[in-house]
């Protein structure tokens, strides 16, 4: 079954690569952690449906439907607990940005080729 893509995907595709270019890798991860902290349920330490619905307006996502929010949680919830921990959230943000994923693959390919040339 193909997963549904939340309407917000376009927003992340537009801005995440720009953030990566301006902030660098460490800065981008720091900003993703800040985003996680804005959405997290303070008592549970994870992003729940309720915390996402309550806090998403801070990220400009106030127009998302409950279905969109549930879809986002489902898309990133690798351990099946119905919530997103910090790692799941960061991975989801990268997955929602195909341009960043492509850049990551290119960097990995370059690193592998350089390592291979070192041994030849």
What is the topological layout?
Elements: H1 9-39, H2 49-55, H3 66-76, H4 86-95, H5 98-119
Keywords: Calcium
Organism: Quercus lobata
GO molecular function: calcium ion binding
Task: Label this structure with key terms.
EF-hand-dom_pair; 5 helices; calcium ion binding; disordered N terminus; elongated; EF_hand_dom; EF_Hand_1_Ca_BS; 0% strand; 120 residues; Recoverin, domain 1; mainly alpha
Short description:
Helices cover 68% and strands 0% of the residues. By secondary structure, the chain is mostly helical.
Description of the molecule:
The N terminus is likely disordered. The protein is elongated. It has a single domain, classed as Orthogonal Bundle (Recoverin, domain 1), CATH 1.10.238. The protein has 120 residues and is an all-alpha fold. The chain has 5 helices and no strands.
């Amino acid at each position: 079954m193909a997963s549904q893509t939340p309407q917000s995907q376009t927003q992340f595709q537009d801005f995440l690569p720009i953030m990566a270019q301006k902030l660098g890798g460490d800065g981008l991860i720091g900003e993703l952690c800040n985003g996680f902290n804005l959405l997290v349920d303070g008592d549970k330490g994870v992003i729940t449906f309720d915390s996402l619905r309550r806090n998403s307006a801070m990220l400009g996502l106030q127009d998302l439907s409950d279905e969109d929010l549930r879809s986002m949680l489902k898309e990133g919830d690798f351990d099946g607990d119905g919530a997103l921990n910090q790692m799941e959230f960061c991975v989801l943000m990268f997955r929602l940005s195909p341009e960043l994923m492509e850049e990551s693959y290119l960097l990995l390919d370059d690193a592998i080729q350089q390592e291979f040339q070192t041994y030849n």
